[in-house]
Structure formats: C-alpha cells, structure tokens
Design brief:
The protein is an alpha+beta fold and 199 residues long. It has three helices and 13 strands.
C-alpha cells in the first residue's frame, strides 16, 4: 500500500518502490529474485556484511558520527553506509584482517609512514615529516585508537606533534593500535600499527 505524506509517496506499487531521501521523492525497481540465495558466494557475502555491520554498530558515536558522516555527506550518503562498504573487505572468512581496516577516512591531512621498534621502555614509533605541505603541519597531533580483543575502542590523545617525529607508548598484549593525525576539524586516515609485544 502506498502512502502520501505531504504529497510524497512512500511504499510499494507493483514492482516499483517509492521513498523519500533528504526531502526528495525517489523510486526504484524491486530487486530481481536471486537464483540461488544459498550459494557459497551469497552466504559468504551475507556473513561478511553481518560481521561488518555488527562491528560498525558499536562505533556509531565514537567514530562514525564524528568522522564518517562529514565525509559521506559530500557524497549524499550516510557515514554508516560508507563505513560498511569501505570495510567489508576487512572481514573475510569470519576473520578480521586489521591491515585492511580503515577506521577513519582521510579528511585533507596526510598520513605518515611509521617505523615501529620494540625497546626496553615499550614501543617506539618514529615517522618522517613532510615539510612545506599544507596536508602536514608541524603542529598536527597524533591520536591513537586502541582496540581491545572484544572490539571495544578507546581514543587516546597523545599530544605528540608531527614535527617531533617520535613517540614512546606502552603496548599491552592483545591490543591493536591504529594512528591518525588531527588538526581542528581535519584529520588523516588511520594506519594500523602492527606492534610486537614480548610473550
């Protein structure tokens, strides 16, 4: 049954679906029937989508609303949708491939290449600093995202500046680290830091 709220149609009429998005009337055809909805490929995609959606649901207020929504808005999309389509490749065969995970997309700042060293005092991060680049200011601050084994995420402001080119951190076992740069309302994409801890 179709509805006419404020002279706009939402609902299904035959094989056409009417809906309103951002105040605009839209319509689309019903998807064609899937010949084999239980094929190995279909099952794998559904599992991949489910794992990504479950992961994303815990990050709405922490990452998706503040960092993904502003980027997605430029494409007339939701941050949640953009996060899912970007990060589905990181969830394959029921396993999270951390090197493929993009927790925060780029917003005009450059990411740096990190060198990671184990020392007696902890983990030392060093990076290059590209001068005379509007995407890399000496006062950009390094922020860490720390992921616990259960998927909970902590954002830690380090106060380290891009120009300092090094940071010492304590790396508890079984936690994953991601790093990105911030400058006011600008930020770089995240970079996974494959830290090695002593057993």
């Amino acid at each position: 049954m179709a509805k006419l709220p404020n002279l706009q149609i939402s609902g299904r009429m035959g094989n056409i679906i009417f809906y309103v998005r951002n105040g605009k009337q839209c319509m689309r055809a019903m998807p064609q029937k899937v010949k084999n909805p239980k094929s190995t490929k279909q099952s794998s995609r559904r599992s991949q989508f489910g794992a990504t959606a479950k992961f994303a649901s815990s990050l709405l207020s922490v990452l998706i609303h503040p960092y993904w929504n502003p980027i997605a808005k430029k494409e007339d999309r939701s941050g949640y949708n953009l996060f899912l389509t970007t990060n589905m490749p990181a969830f394959t065969a029921g396993l999270l491939q951390k090197e493929k995970l993009l927790l925060i997309p780029e917003n005009e700042l450059k990411q740096e290449q990190f060198i990671i060293s184990q020392t007696d005092m902890g983990i030392q991060l060093t990076w290059s600093y590209t001068q005379n680049n509007k995407k890399a200011d000496p006062n950009d601050e390094l922020t860490l995202l720390i992921m616990s084994p259960n998927g909970a995420l902590e954002i830690r402001q380090t106060q380290a500046k891009r120009s300092e080119q090094e940071l010492m951190i304590e790396a508890p076992k079984e936690q994953e680290y991601f790093a990105f740069w911030e400058r006011g309302t600008l930020w770089s994409e995240t970079c996974w830091l494959p830290l090695q801890s002593d057993n």
